[in-house]
Write a structure and sequence with these properties.
binds adenosine-5'-diphosphate; 2 domains; alpha+beta; 7-stranded mixed beta sheet; binds the ligand N[C@@H](CCOP(=O)(O)O)C(=O)O; Alpha-Beta Plaits; 33% helix
Length: 356
């Protein structure tokens, strides 16, 4: 029997200003996997085909590709040592790589659902999240992509034993297996501790849309994280905590209060330290305000950047003016941008089995 299913994962924007590594928002650009399992085709590793964003970059070797490596991790943690025979995957990707829209988080979440479906494991979302956090070690993107909507999350303080398990190098969690048939696969990967990540979904006012202004260059999240300091002043931490506490409720209120939201989206924990990676960032964040652009509610770096996220009321002419100004500011730095007018998705990642 041939089995077919589709996995669909939204992109995400994390931080939303002050919520570094805490909040994430799922948005209407998708990574979609159309999966066929036909055991009569005897291929031992899934065959991969890509269209869309990253099609020329994404590895087509299932032992090197982030999504299929994640799927194999989930399978191996469940005691299944290899992919089933005859898997083929058509990937259509709308999420640009390295732009701060959670492409790697989406790839990991797609891999979790893929492993779960291939192994017929039916793991609850909480357990899938544990696996995700062994790979993508900040919870904001993966939680929002898995659950959907505007989500806040924290990581549990683990026991010393579980801390050791979670701290294993990524190369042991996701080894790139030798591709030769019959080659040694090394030791079993470490299974995730239980209940690492905890989350809650906030409300989101229907009047708020999202504009993503996406510069045509990549910033790797790892590099943008290494730009951050190891410690912060008490004043800067209090500045962010005060704003985040207000922001999570302000974004759910109808009608949205633009003055409150704009101020609550200010940040002193990550954006100031990333400005050298995104030419023009301080000028852009300062030059687009509710007074210069009616309808603007807030502006921030999306995830680790370089995408700028503007929250705006649902009126399209205002949104176009906001996008045009930000694109113009980037053009002064010889950077061209692509604009996406998006909405917040209420549904997170899905896996839909198709009837034979
Ligand atoms: N759909 C995908 N399939 C395979 N690998 C992916 C996919 N999406 C992202 N990646 C990997 O993740 C990298 C980008 O991750 P990262 O630097 O965290 O940026 P982002 O902000 O887009 O998540 C890509 O260069 C690629 O290696
Ligand atoms: N909180 C993280 C979020 C990274 O998101 P990405 O979309 O850039 O991968 C950070 O700011 O480093």
């Amino acid at each position: 029997m041939v089995r077919r299913f589709e996995i669909k994962v939204p992109c995400t924007s994390s931080n939303i200003g002050p919520g570094f590594d805490v909040v994430g928002l799922s948005l209407s650009l998708y990574l979609t996997l159309s999966v066929t399992v036909d055991a009569q085709l005897k291929n031992t590793a899934p065959t991969l085909r890509y269209t869309g964003e990253g099609a020329s970059e994404a590895p087509l070797d299932a032992y090197k590709n982030l999504t299929t490596r994640t799927a194999l991790y989930v399978l191996r943690c469940a005691g299944i040592s290899s992919f089933p025979l005859g898997v083929s995957i058509d990937v259509n990707n709308e999420v640009p790589f390295g732009r701060g829209l959670g492409s790697s988080g989406a790839a990991v979440v797609a891999g979790l659902l893929l492993g779960d479906a291939l192994g017929e494991l039916r793991l609850p979302k909480e357990r899938l999240l544990d696996h995700a956090l062994m790979i993508e070690r900040h919870p904001d993107n993966v939680t929002a992509a898995l659950i959907g909507g505007f989500v806040g999350s924290y990581l549990l303080d683990l026991s010393p034993e579980d801390t050791t398990a979670k701290a294993v190098p990524l190369s042991e969690v996701l080894p790139e297996y030798p591709p030769d048939a019959g080659a040694e696969w090394g030791k079993d990967p470490p299974a995730p501790p239980h209940g690492i990540g905890h989350y809650i979904r906030f409300g989101w006012a229907p009047e708020i849309d999202v504009i993503a202004i996406i510069p045509q260059f990549e910033v790797s999240t790892a590099k943008a994280r290494s730009a951050l300091p190891d410690s912060y002043s008490k004043a800067d931490l209090i500045f962010n905590l005060q704003r985040l506490a207000v922001l999570t409720t302000a974004l759910a209120r109808s009608p949205p209060d633009q003055g409150l939201i704009f101020q609550a989206m200010q940040d002193r924990v990550h954006q100031p330290y990333r400005k050298h990676l995104i030419p023009g960032l301080p000028r852009i964040l300062a030059s687009v305000t509710p007074s210069t652009h009616p309808g603007l509610l807030g502006i921030c770096l999306s995830g680790a950047g370089p995408t700028i996220l503007a929250l705006a009321s649902t009126s399209r002419p205002n949104q176009q003016a906001i996008a045009d100004t930000i694109c113009h500011e980037f053009s002064k730095e010889q950077i061209t941008c692509h604009v996406q007018f998006l909405h917040v998705t209420t549904e997170g990642a899905t896996c839909t089995e198709q009837s034979p």
